[in-house]
Amino acid sequence: MSDRDPGAEPIVVGADAPAWRHRHLLDVDVLAADEIDLVMRTADAMKGILARPIAKVPALRGRNVTIIFWEASTRTRVSFEVAAKNLSADVVNIAASTSSVTKGESLVDTIRTVQALGAQMLVMRHGTSGAPYLAAEHFDGHVLNGGDGWHAHPTQALLDLYTMRERLPGGSIAGRKVVILGDILHSRVARSNIWSLTAAGADLWLCGPSTLLRGLDRWGGRAAGFPGHGRFTVTSDVDAALRDADVVMALRIQKERMDSGLLPSLREYTARFGLTLDRLAAAKPDALVMHPGPMNEGVEIDPAVVALDRAVIEDQVTNGVAVRMALLYLLAGVHGAEGAHDAA
Ligand code: ASP
Q1: Is residue 188 in contact with ligand 1, taking CB distance under 6 Å?
Q2: Residue 115's domain spans which residues?
């Protein structure tokens, strides 16, 4: 930051922080444990900025952040917009539903068009798994994945991790029992969380009806290659999963991605797997309750659970702004070796 940027203290992450090495953020699987830690520390600094009377710094002044979502979103889209504005970026918001995408324009043509219009950082959400990887091949700047199909939601996983570190006594996830409960099959949130939570050493449990756990045992084998990973358990036994849990994260049943026949009915799902006060009683008394939103209260989570003080669902939303500020800042190359990027 230069002396010509008035009215803001510098963003201090710490002299011993590792350099950021990534040009894009497509998933968390490429982040080593020290890089995840860098994101957490940078987000701490961003939280400090959010606590200032004027939560705005000039770090990304003059940079164009273009946000284009092909799928619905409230939290992620707005949070990226607020984050980019807090860093003084020029934000361009495109709703795919009102863009030339509706006239049949391809993803690659849309990417080239927004680039020609000045986009330097592209935040995107797409219904097709892998779409941001294709975008990254055709975009000269930085791509941030705001969720692709069933595949990945890296910023959600990082804000979840940040919230756990903030709210768990002692601030460490290592050895903590974290349960992700619900529609794991269709959940990009669960997939990204598997990488970051196992990297942080959590005792991770994935729980849901067997039809919504399909393929995960096989996928779990891949986690063995991840630096600092732990193992995870896949089960349909909700009582075993919740027993002595430190964190319970409920997931929405993603009806929009669901083939028929995977669930007999939502009512049956709620009866067998819904997170109620009764079920939660098996977890530790102070267990955190999380949900990435949007919630279907009364389906995957009971309103009485949402109302608990230890339900940190709004903290997740607030922390999402700090974490996304941190990621925009790191990707823009403001921290560490200027312009040092790799292909990931
Ligand atoms: N908001 C999250 C996502 O975009 C979770 C959900 O939609 O249920 O993946």
Answers
A1: yes
A2: 28-153+319-335
The residue whose C-alpha atom lies closest to atom 4 belonging to ligand 1 is 147
The pLDDT, as a whole number, for residue 8 is 53
Q: Is residue 258 part of a domain?
A: yes
pLDDT reported for residue 103: 78
Residue 83 sits in the same domain as residue 147: yes
- Residues 32 and 167 grouped into a single domain: no
28 lines ligand 1 (CB under 6 A): no
Q: Give residue 294 CA to ligand 1 midpoint distance, Å.
A: 7
Q: With 0-12 CB in 10 A as exposed, 13-18 as middle and 19+ as buried, what is 98?
A: exposed
Residue type, 23: R
Ligand 1, closest atom to CA 76?
A: 1
- Residues 324, 83 contacting (CB under 8 angstroms): yes
Q: Are residues 178 and 301 in the same domain?
A: yes
Residue where the block lists tokens 């990435």: 292
* CATH number for 266: 3.40.50.1370
End-to-end Cα spacing for the chain: 26
pLDDT of 151 higher than 70: yes
pLDDT tens figures, 19-32: 898 999 999 999 98
297 contact partners, CB below 8 Å, separation of at least 6: 303, 306
pTM here is 0.92
pLDDT of 323 higher than 50: yes
Helix (H) or strand (E) holding 127: none
Protein residue whose Cα sits closest to atom 1 of ligand 1: 293
Distance, C-alpha 157 to centroid of its chain:
4
Q: Sort 282 into a burial class: Cβ within 10 Å, 0-12 / 13-18 / 19+.
A: middle
Domain-embedded: residue 1: no
In a domain, 21, yes or no: no
Task: Compute the distance from residue 293 Cα to the ligand 1 centre, in Å.
Answer: 6
Ligand 1 atom with the shortest distance to the CA of 153? 9
Cβ of residue 153 lying under 6 Å from some atom of ligand 1: yes
Element (H, E) at 131: helix 131-138
Find out whether the beta carbon of 292 lies less than 6 Å from any atom of ligand 1. yes
